């Protein structure tokens, strides 16, 4: 498996270069998806996303999962890692606490995805939450190069696309995991990107 840090250099944005810190001036929009599902879209939620990208790329225990495809087992087209609640203290615990306060839900752990280049991706899916928990909240923090986060209704319909840059936050909430699917599609060229997805104790261990 190639080392994530040996990948091609990224383009840094001005806001992405400094030390990671919450940007209190970020503007947010709630998008009602219907049937009790919603998205909060907060571009520029975190300043210094590129510095946090570098740290995550270097220090997280990245691995490559497998999935069944037809009659074969194939490697997932991205690296993944799981972080405990206290990783990268004080920054990540502080961000988790802020999200917990805002959404009145405890975020205990983080599931991280590493997209090494444009051929890494995640296919359409809804995150596996305990069946009884219809309403949930999953914040997704994007770090590093820009990628498109796509969201579409289950059973068909027009997809919405969010271009996520370093430090952008997208929160899927309410019934979104039941009514919609999401994906990060492949693209011809892409700088490396990491997403941190904040999870609660009741969430399944894998997205
Ligand atoms: O990388 C992203 O923005 C999405 C990650 C995702 O779909 C997941 O972890 O379930």
Description:
This protein is an alpha+beta fold and 207 residues long. The chain has a single domain, classed as Jelly Rolls. 15% of the residues lie in helices and 38% in strands. The strands form four sheets. The protein has a seven-stranded antiparallel β-sheet. A four-stranded antiparallel β-sheet has the order 9-14-11-12. Strand 5 and strand 6 (72-75) form a beta hairpin. The structure holds 2-oxoglutaric acid.
At a glance:
The protein is α+β, with helices and mostly antiparallel strands.
Q: What count of structural domains?
A: 1
The rounded Rg comes to 16 Å
- CATH class category name: Mainly Beta
Distance between the termini: 21 Å
Give me the count of strands: 15
Helix-strand topology string: HEEEEHEEEHEEEEEEHEE
> What small molecules are bound in this structure?
2-oxoglutaric acid
Percent range for β-strand residues = 35-45%
Number of helices: 4
Overall mean confidence score, pLDDT: 89
The 3D shape can be described as globular
Structural class: alpha+beta
Biggest sheet architecture: 7 strands, antiparallel
Q: What's the CATH H-level homologous superfamily?
A: Alpha-ketoglutarate-dependent dioxygenase AlkB-like
Reported by name, the CATH topology is Jelly Rolls
Range of helix content = 10-25%
Strand order of the largest sheet: 2-3-13-10-15-8-7
CATH architecture: Sandwich
- Low-pLDDT ranges: 1-12
Which features does this protein show?
disordered N terminus, 207 residues, alpha+beta, binds 2-oxoglutaric acid, Jelly Rolls
